[in-house]
């Protein structure tokens, strides 16, 4: 049962664009947790007080740019209230389904089963069978972003999640990094999951395609080589023999561009131009990265959204959006909030490993250049917050402890 709860909570799919499953799973966990407590099958509810304090601090500090600039932007506050709600659901799910002797192993097993489910859905939808395509599109943002349905990017919606595009890529980047770090610790995970994560990660977007290499190099094992060879062979085969397929052309654009430039300049590497490999990177550099004004760097403008619900400043970059809202100080607040949960995962799962902490923060910082990553309440942050629960580090408060009540 925990595998299904884990899948629907973390990936948060829509049910035919009517209701989000993370909220459903939170309600289910609350009901089941109440039943366990009422029947005395669980002795209290573990609550990570310092994590809740971090979220409340983020909400309070996010009010300061509004007060300084005299604006009434509520978008940021609503985002972080959502963060508080999703984390509360995660705490209930942990207490209801993961208070076991091997909670970490159970969690990783459930994450791997989620990877299998996503890979199966992706493969079935890629066959073009309308039933599976409709199921996949019914779980995500295709109704909100209809221009992508039927386009060369539709394959990026072939998954079981309400998320898509960059935020989904960020999720799989973090999941891969965490899985590799966990396998370095235990050395018991099956290498096939590396291949499956790479497959669904590449389907999510080119951001994953680039950053996954860093994690693999950092946590490399020789037994990964056969799976990496299979993955590289599939990628090269598609790029060489099916470069005109609209999905392949979009997903593997960097690989196709590199191969075409190398093949065009065979024997003359000095003339090979690698300056324009990915159109998305070129667009980011040309249109979305700019230096805010000095006043904006100091205190921001107090805006995150425009009145018509577009991003203020028109930039995709997380650094730019956060600077325009609250200045450099606000960027630091968002970074420290994210770093707190990364460090809590390192403490609870990897004995405080700085290798894991610093490398993941570097990856998240690179991601934040392209789009919101620090403190953004997407499924990637939900994954970080949920993983942070599996351990005893930090200030824990046990609520509704029945054993104490009996002794009174």
Automatic annotation (TrEMBL):
<feature type="transmembrane region" description="Helical">
    <location>
        <begin position="374"/>
        <end position="391"/>
    </location>
</feature>
<keyword id="KW-0472">Membrane</keyword>
<feature type="transmembrane region" description="Helical">
    <location>
        <begin position="14"/>
        <end position="37"/>
    </location>
</feature>
<feature type="transmembrane region" description="Helical">
    <location>
        <begin position="115"/>
        <end position="137"/>
    </location>
</feature>
<feature type="transmembrane region" description="Helical">
    <location>
        <begin position="192"/>
        <end position="218"/>
    </location>
</feature>
<feature type="transmembrane region" description="Helical">
    <location>
        <begin position="74"/>
        <end position="94"/>
    </location>
</feature>
<feature type="transmembrane region" description="Helical">
    <location>
        <begin position="49"/>
        <end position="68"/>
    </location>
</feature>
<feature type="transmembrane region" description="Helical">
    <location>
        <begin position="224"/>
        <end position="242"/>
    </location>
</feature>
<feature type="transmembrane region" description="Helical">
    <location>
        <begin position="157"/>
        <end position="180"/>
    </location>
</feature>
<keyword id="KW-1133">Transmembrane helix</keyword>
<protein>
    <submittedName>
        <fullName>Uncharacterized protein</fullName>
    </submittedName>
</protein>
<feature type="transmembrane region" description="Helical">
    <location>
        <begin position="323"/>
        <end position="342"/>
    </location>
</feature>
<keyword id="KW-0812">Transmembrane</keyword>
<feature type="transmembrane region" description="Helical">
    <location>
        <begin position="348"/>
        <end position="367"/>
    </location>
</feature>
